[in-house]
Design a protein that fits this description.
It contains five helices and seven strands, in the order ββββαααβαβαβ. By secondary structure, it is α+β, with helices and mostly antiparallel strands. The chain has one domain: 2-C-methyl-D-erythritol 2,4-cyclodiphosphate synthase (60s Ribosomal Protein L30, Chain: A). The chain has a five-stranded mixed sheet with strand order 4-1-7-5-6. The chain has a two-stranded antiparallel ribbon with strand order 2-3. α1 packs parallel to α3. The chain starts with a strand and ends with a strand. The relative contact order is 0.25. It binds magnesium ion (MG).
Length: 165
């Protein structure tokens, strides 16, 4: 059995806080204007972290936290673009390419809808796929729980990989 597709799932969350505890809000590699931001070792980009873990999960490799530990000074303030690029490189080296990505971002404020095209455009470049192969859905927490109270961002992502060799 030599499958031609593989699927991966990724999840990430970050607590949001006012500066200086919280850094700038970065999602999908883009800086998004907001008064609160993630408390994180890297740039705290929960969307790219979830997508990176989905790619690594589909490959059956060690996850993001194992490959890029949050106690390693190299990743302090690091752009999470680097983590996703690294995961895509590992996929290519093992003979896989991304088919499509579908992600759901749970965030009370700001609404992601106005950033959707820019996010798809930027992430499509990191993933080497057309923008319509990257789907980003925004959901609010309906005022409930830490997401609903604006204290957390959560992301669920699914990735399909195709065999290229
Ligand atoms: Mg994270």
């Amino acid at each position: 059995m030599n499958p031609s597709i593989r699927v991966g799932h990724g999840y990430d969350c970050h607590r949001l806080a006012l500066p200086p505890e919280g850094g700038p809000l970065v999602l999908g590699g883009l800086r998004i204007e907001h008064d609160m931001g993630p408390v994180a070792h890297s740039d705290g980009d929960a969307l790219l972290h979830a997508v990176t873990d989905a790619v690594l999960g589909a490959l059956g490799l060690d996850d993001l936290g194992t490959q890029f530990p949050d106690n390693d000074p190299r990743w302090h303030g690091a752009s999470s673009d680097h983590f996703l690029k690294e995961a895509i490189l590992q996929a290519q080296n093992l003979g896989w390419t991304v088919g499509n990505v579908d992600a759901t971002v749970l965030l009370e404020r700001p609404r992601l809808i106005k950033h959707r095209s820019a996010l798809r455009e930027h992430m499509s470049k990191l993933l080497h796929v057309p923008p319509d192969s990257v789907n980003i859905k925004g959901k609010s927490g309906e005022g409930l729980g830490p997401v609903g109270q604006g204290q957390m961002v959560e992301v669920h992502a699914t990735v399909l990989l195709h065999r290229i060799s």
